[in-house]
Structure formats: structure tokens, C-alpha cells
Amino acid sequence: MERGHLLREYELTYIVRPDADEETVAAINARVEQTITANGGRVLKTDYPWGKERRRLAYPIRRYNEGYYILHRAELNDKAIREVERQLRLSEDVIRHLLIRVEPEPGAQPAESA
User: Fold this and answer.
1) Which residue range forms the structural domain that includes residue 33?
2) DSSP letter (8 states) at residue 1
3) 6, 98, 107, 111: which sits with the fewest CB atoms below 10 Å from its CB?
4) Is residue 111 included in any domain, yes or no?
5) What is the pLDDT of residues 39-58, one digit of tens each?
């Protein structure tokens, strides 16, 4: 199997500017989910880990002290990872993002695309 087709589980967390309205946050969320699926990935779960309200940041980022946190758990291949990270870097509304690979449980079978 080609390396680019292998799906692995990741957690993607990003912070949206505090001055974004609810529609903007929802549009960013939808765009990220669409990018994941359009590039061969699969969204497993979307969550607002600290609610849908603005939260105080641990330290200022781009002069912002607050932001909206969004967490996605997804299965991604190399192509989906590159495209999602590219879009998040280019988005003026996203002030920080972090993508972390989730280690599989011992004895679990890796997911593969069809």
C-alpha cells in the first residue's frame, strides 16, 4: 500500500479569533471538516472542549488574549494533513493550530483507506 493512503488517527485543535461571530466559527469548522473529507480523511468527532464561549488564552497570541477552541478527532492521510494545515496557516481567523497523532491502543489494527 502506498504511504499516502494510510489513515492514522489525529487530534486537531485550533483557536479562532475572539472577535469572530458564531457564523464565522461555524464556517471555519465546516471548511476544516470538508477539507478533511475531500482529501481522503474522515472526521470522527468534533468538539468544543471548553464550550462555545470565548476562553482566556494561557498567553497572548497575535495580541489576542481570548479565543474559541475547536477540537477535531479525525483519521487523516498525508494529503489531508498537508491541505488542512495549509488552510489553517492561511486563515486570518485561526490564530493557532496544533495537530497531534493519536497513538493506537496496543493490539489495535491500523485503519486503511479503501
Assistant:
1) 3-101
2) -
3) 107
4) no
5) 999 999 999 887 788 999 99
We report the CATH number of the domain holding residue 76 as 3.30.70.60
Question: What does the DSSP assignment read for 43-110?
Answer: EEEEE-BTBSS-EEEEEEETTEEEEEEEEEEEEE-HHHHHHHHHHHHH-SSEEEEEEEEPPPPTTPPP
The answer as to whether 109 is a domain residue is no
What pLDDT, in 10s, does the model give residues 86-100? Answer: 999 999 999 999 999
Does residue 89 belong to any structural domain of this protein? Answer: yes
CB atoms within 10 A of CB 83: 17
Record the pTM: 0.83
Q: Which helix (H) or strand (E) holds 34?
A: helix 22-38
